[in-house]
Amino acid sequence: FFGQVPGAPADVIFALISSYKADSHAQKVDLGVGAYRTDEGKPWVLPVVKKADHIMMDDDALDHEYLPILGLEPFRKASVKLILGANSKAIAEGRAGAAQCISGTGAVYAGAHFLSKHYPIKGAACYISKPTWANHRAIFEGVDMQVLEYPYWDPATKGLDLKGMLRTMQSAPNGSIFVIHPCAHNPTGVDPTNDQWRQIADVMESKGHFPFFDCAYQGFASGSLDKDAYSVRYFVDRGFEMFIAQSFSKNFGLYSERAGNLTIVARSVEVKNRIESQIAKAQRAVISNPPAYGSRIVSVVLNNETLYGEWEQNLSTMANRIIGMRKILFDELIRLGTPGTWNHIVDQIGMFSFTGLTTSQVKVLKEKYHVYLTDNGRISMAGLNSKNVKYFAQAVDFVVRN
Ligand code: PLP
Ligand code: TYF
């Protein structure tokens, strides 16, 4: 049957993980995947997650029955509250809905799939930022939507190309779909300011565009969960209907447990219920119902004031270590007198830095220094630690000079 099937290319990031693992060099450095590491370069199980684990293990009432199709009720409620804020008018008015999904990826997929079936404007295109997380294109093309790009990164300023972004939003047909990173943009680490969000909302409102937020790093950008939700809450206050895909992979360190949620802000309770019913129908055919373990952990923490406070502290530990590494890397490059400007290393936020290194420089980093990062020059800051940051700075210094 399958003699004609062509092979598909490997996922870039997962291929990078494999080549890093296969490298036996003692000083190898992994700056590829966006996963938090301790200063010892090890994965970190958050202490609050360990606590939640024990609470669950001691709970004799827990069983392994199926969850409902849309997932664990207290998880869904808490996820919506986390992103929209406890005082959100959308929650008070009962028009905020939720579907537990297979982590952030599954939430983007569930939303994209729904839009491909039910978006009122036939043939509406979906705009993603240039650059963005590679899966955005794959997911929206996978549900047969036309994918276009809006400018985001300005290589000249190593910052946001706000003009280009607004120009594209302005010239896109009315009612287009825009996938937006609410905080800690992947891969650039560049976010709009509050005033820039206002300008973006102004254009999107006047054009009747639909915002689809993909929130994979709440708590990682500013270290404050509320501040990181600013853009989403601002858009809700302005009266937008929207989807928000939420991932708990990074902020809970639950990568493999696939805990995520699609928050839906609709114009009315009625419409919210109908959207949820359609997503439930689609979800039934794809996963039947979501997995329980990760969502139970998240739910235990989000629904307990003490544990919530501990989670915030764990988040600060991660965010602050990353900020510290930015500073050390920056200082090192300045000390070495590495040609170019490096302020963007400390100005960018979240898990990633978009260094501005070229594909050929990245190649030398890998071949000569055993430093692994994506071809676009993105580094996962969490891969840097007190033992390898100077080595990395020297490697960058070399490739920039040669
Ligand atoms: N969206 C963005 C922008 C991401 O960077 C990621 C992963 O890092 C995700 C979504 C989804 O990740 P996951 O499926 O592990 O929640
Ligand atoms: O960009 C990253 O490193 C994270 C991790 O299919 C990731 O988003 C990468 C690829 C993928 C899923 C997660």
Summarize the structure in words.
Residues 27-396 form the Aminotransferase class I/classII large domain. It is an enzyme of class 2 (transferase). One of its GO terms (biological process) is aspartate biosynthetic process. This is aspartate transaminase. Its EC number is 2.6.1.1. By secondary structure, the protein is an alpha/beta fold. It has two domains: 12-44 and 319-401, Aspartate Aminotransferase, domain 1, CATH 3.90.1150.10; 73-303, Type I PLP-dependent aspartate aminotransferase-like (Major domain) (Aspartate Aminotransferase, domain 2). It is 47% helix and 13% strand. It has 16 helices and 13 strands. The protein has helices at 12-22, 47-57, 73-84, 89-92, 103-118, 134-142, 162-171, 194-207, 225-228, 230-237, 269-286, 293-302, 305-336, 343-347, 359-369, 389-401, and strands at 29-30, 96-102, 126-130, 147-151, 153-154, 159-160, 177-180, 210-215, 242-247, 259-265, 352-354, 371-372, 378-380. Strands 2-10-9-8-7-3-4 form a seven-stranded mixed sheet, with helices on both faces. It has a two-stranded parallel sheet with strand order 1-12. The protein has a two-stranded antiparallel sheet with strand order 5-6. It is globular. The model has no long low-confidence stretch (mean pLDDT 97). It binds pyridoxal-5'-phosphate and (2S)-2-hydroxy-3-(4-hydroxyphenyl)propanoic acid (TYF).
